[in-house]
């Protein structure tokens, strides 16, 4: 696929890398990506996932919850929304290098034959790859990511914010992305069950989930509770 690289001079390769680097750095401040993180599941735990490391890292020290999704139905929804995709996260360093090297190699090939969009196409491909890479230390999670890259013109009309510790976090509501969903796509978030975290007030949280959320939005949804005897020291 990249055999033509052997015909490229070192000067061409250096120039293409330089131009890609300049273009990437110039556009990175304007780059917005919205990510919903999912765990593919750790086999030995079984469904639903009840993992101490996940409660500590992602659920406000156990005060949050876990939702289980129907991946087949979620994938069907993604197929109807431009700019939205589902991808597995890459943890292996060799795989990550292969992804980036492959993008750069294809960019060199296109640049060397004078393709006008070689640099911008390479930057776009790198931007596509960036949200798919994570340190190998997190590989236990087997994470998948629901990723949305919106056109800049859409942000002022659909972007929202919520407070998260000491900063404001932008977010998008999936219903705003599906402007005309087919009836078969509803509900937009195909939740199959909910697990309440191992907080000190687990009983109250379960009641709140059942009475205030499930009863209103998804009657009949299964609600479970974590069996881990974890309490935050914070």
Mind explaining what this structure looks like?
The structure is a single chain. 38% of the residues lie in helices and 18% in strands. It is an alpha+beta fold. The protein is elongated, with a radius of gyration of 22 Å. The termini are far apart.
- Poorly predicted runs are 1-9
Order of helices and strands: HEHEHEHHEHEEHEHE
Radius of gyration equals 22 Å
Strand content: 15-25%
Give the structure's gist in a few sentences.
This protein is α+β, with helices and mostly antiparallel strands and 234 residues long. It is built from 8 helices and 8 strands. Strands 1-4-3 form a 3-stranded antiparallel β-sheet, with no helix packed on it.
List keywords for this structure.
single chain, 234 residues, alpha+beta, 3-stranded antiparallel beta sheet, 3-stranded mixed beta sheet, 8 helices, disordered N terminus
Topology:
Elements: H1 10-27, E1 34-39, H2 52-58, E2 65-69, H3 71-78, E3 84-88, H4 93-112, H5 118-129, E4 143-148, H6 155-158, E5 160-164, E6 167-171, H7 174-177, E7 191-196, H8 202-217, E8 222-225
Parallel strand pairs: 7-8
Antiparallel strand pairs: 1-4, 2-7, 3-4, 5-6
């Amino acid at each position: 696929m990249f055999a033509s690289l052997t015909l490229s001079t070192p000067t061409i390769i250096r120039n293409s890398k330089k131009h890609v680097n300049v273009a990437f750095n110039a556009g990175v401040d304007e780059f917005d990506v919205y990510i919903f993180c999912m765990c593919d599941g750790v086999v030995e735990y079984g469904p639903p996932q009840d993992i101490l490391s996940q409660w500590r890292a992602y659920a406000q020290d156990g005060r949050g919850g876990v939702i289980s999704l129907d991946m087949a139905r979620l994938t069907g929804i993604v197929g109807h929304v431009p700019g939205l995709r589902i991808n597995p996260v890459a943890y292996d360093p060799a795989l990550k290098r292969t992804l980036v090297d492959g993008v750069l190699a294809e960019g060199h090939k296109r640049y060397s034959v004078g393709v006008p969009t070689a640099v911008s196409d390479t930057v776009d491909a790198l931007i596509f790859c960036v949200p798919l890479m994570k340190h190998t230390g997190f590989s236990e999670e087997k994470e998948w990511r629901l990723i949305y890259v919106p056109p800049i013109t859409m942000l002022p009309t659909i972007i929202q914010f919520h407070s998260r510790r000491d900063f404001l976090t932008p977010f998008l509501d999936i219903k705003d992305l599906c402007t005309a969903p087919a009836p078969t796509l509803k509900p937009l978030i195909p939740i199959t069950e909910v697990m309440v975290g191992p907080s000190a007030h687990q009983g109250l949280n379960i009641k709140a989930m059942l009475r205030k959320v499930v009863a209103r939005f998804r009657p009949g949804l299964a609600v479970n509770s974590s069996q881990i005897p974890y309490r935050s020291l914070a």
